[in-house]
Design brief:
Length: 931
């Protein structure tokens, strides 16, 4: 059913609704009457079947009006319908019945974003009814709901557009709806616009109707059944390019007109990836088209709206002449992520506690899909780093289980973090390695076919991955499964099936990884042929009681000096013993870091590994070497390993050439001097910086200042030359400074090698003249990846007046976009000349920031932790606590990121107190050996 709202225009007042506190008797509505529903979650008495939604955004007055007609299914007799609406004027509320329209009484409870529709007579169980609501609101000036975006053309004209971002709880700010993921429905959308604009939404346009006054009304086809957070629409002047997949799905990429020539990579990647996912999931993509739109103002990286995914411009646009291999990988990876969310759009988590089913799976599928479709991008390197990042957060007492209880919108927003995304991906990767890739893929297909268009909990996934070869009507005719099961029956003793079906309880294993926070530290001690194993929670704390009561089922993998075959063992108990066929010189657990756990080699174990790395490091893979570097330095912090042992291991890095191991060396060593930069200890700080430069000097000297080599080699080159310049290594500084001066003399027209631009810009930003030239180029450039590198270089300048100006400009959001402010703040905080500016700025602008970026969002958490995570004195801890302690719950006092901040600073203090003398002694001792 469709209807027109061409004559329905409403005006919203600028007043914000008054937020009433609950009284002892219960919540009170804005009218002063009791509100009839007392819970944050909606009742299950009715559910929506279909929305007819008509919207008219006015891009001149920056507001919108609309009408929504919702078809309801009644599950219990009720005289009450509770749904969501946020900061919205409701102008009309009707019950549409066969005998005619009847007005509904409306009560509002802004604290829970709820509306109550009160009926004179009850709706009967089993019946279907329709309610109609007229509404209006201002376009949001934040990055969520139905919000205003703008961009400046090369001629200086500012153009306005309107776009949506509804995940997690912001559809309610655009139209009245049942804004919880389990309330799936179909949507038929109409959008009124001016002829100079276009409108796009989840589905293709069916027809366009001319309205009085020169307006046009686009009617879109009806969607599949989906959650409200996936609804999307954009009114803009975008242009598009299109291609078609093998099966005939139309793929289009939309961007502002002057950047449409930067869309070719995204278009090709989108077609290739959608073809891959159709093959992998064994399900045809259910929509006729999939659009990708680059939005000039966008808070996160991208959003998986079904049929219309939206992206930050830097996440979608790519200039083959100006963008780097890292940019190419980033664009491909984010498209792979959003397309993998087809999995979560089709089968959606019941509630936000299982967000990881969507986001963790999508992050994991980046690895699987990009490895197959774009092997040259070597995505494995990036994936391993994500597991280390997840462990950083997961090692704090304030961590949370992957699946954890959440209730209110702030808690829901906080679920979009490294635990849900990166830990979720890493434990799925571990499970895939444990089950074998073939078994994992068959289980995923079962899950999708069984639960299509439904909502699920984690248990449903584990059930689908168990008993793969038992009779199941859903798998009849599944050739891939039949081949797998017959092969497994023929080779039941083969190494790939190292467990029997009756031993395999996927849910029992995975519950230990999803229902408890943290991760295990496995201690390995070799005594002859006997390998003694024990597990405990790895936790950065001085309270040992916090590690008690944790037990995981850990799929261990290991190789030894006697056998490069990957051996497997499922550790289910606190301690266990393995027996080797023969004594070995060394063994390495967690092969390729496929498992989400750390390993401590007790007794003489670390010495054996250090000896191996110093004499024959290539016996181990790059991922294995990176995980050893990670684990040994992390174990120093909890007192398991001496600092000099970790530093002794790092000496081998002077011979390392692989990207993952080199970058992990930097990841562990650089934070040591970063802690000192925020203290008055220049001598030791410079000694530590000198050690790292000398360690990698040979590798830095071997880098060409061009764009030759593989993706991995080019990423490493960019990393090393940037480090050399930042650390004032003379050959780097001289070369980069000369290149910047030549580039500036050419008016910025000289073509710089892409891989060296970051280092060149960083040197240029050190002088006022160079900084001003960079800013002018930043202001006029249309290449998003180039602008991004310029922004970082300017924010790392030693010129404090420029840093302060840049922070203020980012708040105003004119020349420097507000969306870039978090990156500017965090980069300035990492700048030894600017970290106190960033901290002062965060405090002074706190209320503006939480309004623009939303309380509990990962962007707020990124700024909070990014600005504070290198403080290491009790004085700064007290100052940080004073500020955050002065907040109320409404302004963020309960956010998890604040607790993480306290715990991180406390851990830094403990580390500095325990290890500074040892670090000084080791550096003094080894200075002559560093060549």
């Amino acid at each position: 059913a469709t209807f027109s709202v061409s004559s329905v225009f409403y005006v919203l007042t600028n007043e914000r609704p008054h937020v009433c506190q609950s009284s002892e008797e219960g919540p009170t509505s804005t009218s002063g009457q009791p509100f009839p529903w007392h819970h944050m979650r909606l009742p299950k008495t009715v559910s929506p079947l279909h929305y007819d939604l008509a919207i008219h955004p006015n891009l001149t007055t920056l507001d919108f009006s609309g009408v929504v007609r919702i078809q309801l299914e009644v599950h219990r007799d009720t005289s009450l319908v509770i749904l969501h609406a946020k900061q919205m004027q409701i102008s009309e509320a009707l019950l549409l019945a066969p005998e005619g329209a009847r007005p509904l009484r409306v009560l509002e409870y802004p604290r829970f974003h709820q509306l109550a529709l009160l009926l004179d007579s009850p709706l009967a169980k089993g019946g279907t009814y329709q309610v109609l609501l007229g509404f209006s609101a201002n376009l949001s000036d934040s990055f969520h709901g139905f919000y205003k975006s703008s961009y400046r053309t090369s001629s200086g004209e500012v153009r306005v557009l309107a776009s949506t971002q509804f995940e997690a709880t912001f559809a309610r700010a655009a139209f009245p709806c049942f804004d919880e993921p389990a309330f799936k429905a179909k949507f038929t959308i109409q959008i009124i616009r001016e002829p100079r604009h276009i409108a796009i939404s989840n589905m293709p346009i069916v027809k366009t109707v001319e309205l009085p006054g020169g307006l046009l009304e686009d009617h879109f086809d009806t969607t599949v059944k989906m959650s409200t957070y996936l609804v999307a629409y954009i009114v803009s002047d975008f242009l598009s390019v299109s291609k078609t997949t093998h099966r005939g799905v139309k793929i289009s990429v939309y961007a502002v007109p002057e950047k449409i020539d930067q869309t070719a990579l995204a278009l090709d990647a989108a077609v290739t990836l959608l073809d891959f996912y159709e093959e992998y999931f064994h399900i045809p993509y259910p929509l006729p088209k999939q659009d990708l739109a680059a939005i000039p103002d966008f808070q996160s990286g991208a959003m998986e709206n079904w049929g219309l995914s939206t992206y930050r411009e830097t996440a979608l646009l790519y200039d083959p002449h100006k963008s780097s291999p890292s940019d190419k990988l980033a664009v491909t990876k984010v498209i792979a992520h959003e397309y993998a969310q087809w999995f979560g759009n089709l089968v959606t988590m019941e509630w936000w506690n299982d967000l990881w089913l969507n986001e963790g799976f999508a992050k994991f599928m980046e690895l699987i899909s990009v490895n197959v479709t774009h092997p040259e991008l070597q995505v494995d390197d990036v994936f391993l780093g994500k597991c280390f990042e997840a462990m950083e957060v997961d090692s704090l007492p304030s961590s949370h289980p992957v699946s954890t209880h959440v209730e209110n919108p702030v808690q829901i927003q906080e679920m979009f973090d490294d635990v849900s995304y990166d830990k979720g991906a890493c434990i799925l990767n571990m499970l895939r390695d444990f089950l074998t890739p073939e078994a994992f893929e068959i289980g995923i297909i079962r899950y999708l076919k069984h639960f299509s268009y439904q909502n699920t909990v984690s248990q449903h996934l584990w059930e689908s991955l168990s008993n793969l070869c038992s009779p199941d009507h859903l798998n009849k005719g599944d050739r891939k499964r039949e081949e797998f099961c017959s092969a497994r029956a023929r080779h039941s003793t083969a190494s790939q099936q190292w467990f029997s079906d009756d031993e395999l309880d996927v849910q029992a294993i995975m519950d230990t990884w999803t229902l408890q926070e943290g991760f295990p530290l496995v201690t390995v001690e070799v005594r002859g042929r006997e390998v003694r194993l024990s597990q405990e929670r790895y936790l950065k704390t001085d309270d040992p009681s916090l590690t008690e009561g944790f037990l995981w089922q850990i799929p261990l993998t290991y190789v030894t000096s006697a056998s490069s075959t990957v051996h497997r063992f499922l550790l289910k108990t606190k301690t266990d013993v393995l027996y080797l066929p023969q004594e070995v010189d060394w063994l390495k657990f967690n092969v390729d870091m496929s498992g989400y756990y750390m390993v401590h080699y007790a007794g003489d174990g670390w010495n054996a590994i250090i000896h191996l790395l110093q004499h024959n490091h290539t016996v181990l893979t790059s991922n294995d070497r990176a995980s050893l570097i990670h684990d040994v330095f992390q174990l120093v912090g909890v007192g398991k390993v001496r600092l000099d042992t970790a530093l002794d291991l790092s000496l081998y890095l002077s011979r390392e050439t692989e990207t993952m191991a080199v970058t992990q060396g930097f990841e562990e060593l650089v934070p040591l001097y970063k802690l000192m930069e925020k203290r008055d200890m220049a001598a030791l700080e410079n000694q530590m910086k000198g050690y790292i430069v000398d360690l990698f000097r040979g590798l830095i000297d071997r880098q060409n200042w061009d764009d030759s080599g593989s993706v991995s080699e080019r990423v490493l080159r960019s990393y090393l030359l940037l480090f050399g310049c930042v650390r004032n290594y003379p050959p780097c500084v001289e070369k980069a400074t000369r290149l910047f001066n030549e580039w500036r003399a050419s008016g910025g027209h000289m073509s710089l090698p892409v891989d060296v631009t970051m280092a060149v810009f960083m040197m240029g930003a050190r002088t006022p003249e160079g900084w001003d030239f960079l800013f002018e180029k930043y202001r006029t450039s249309l290449q998003m990846s180039v602008k991004s590198r310029m922004k970082v270089a300017m924010a790392f300048s030693p010129l404090r007046d420029k840093l302060a100006w840049m922070l203020e400009q980012s708040v105003q959001g004119d020349v420097m976009k507000l969306q870039d402010l978090p990156d500017v703040v965090v980069t300035v905080s990492r700048n030894p000349r600017g970290y106190n500016l960033a901290w002062d700025f965060l405090r002074a602008n706190w209320h503006t920031l939480i309004k623009k970026f939303d309380l509990g969002s990962n962007i707020i958490a990124y700024m909070v932790t990014g600005v504070t995570n290198r403080y290491s004195t009790t004085e700064m801890l007290d100052e940080v606590k004073r500020f955050f302690g002065s907040l109320t719950e409404e302004t963020g006092s309960e956010m998890r990121s604040i607790q993480q901040t306290y715990e991180t600073i406390q851990d830094n203090i403990r580390w500095m107190e325990a290890h500074l003398p040892e670090l000084q002694a080791w550096l003094d001792k080894h200075r002559p050996r560093i060549v």
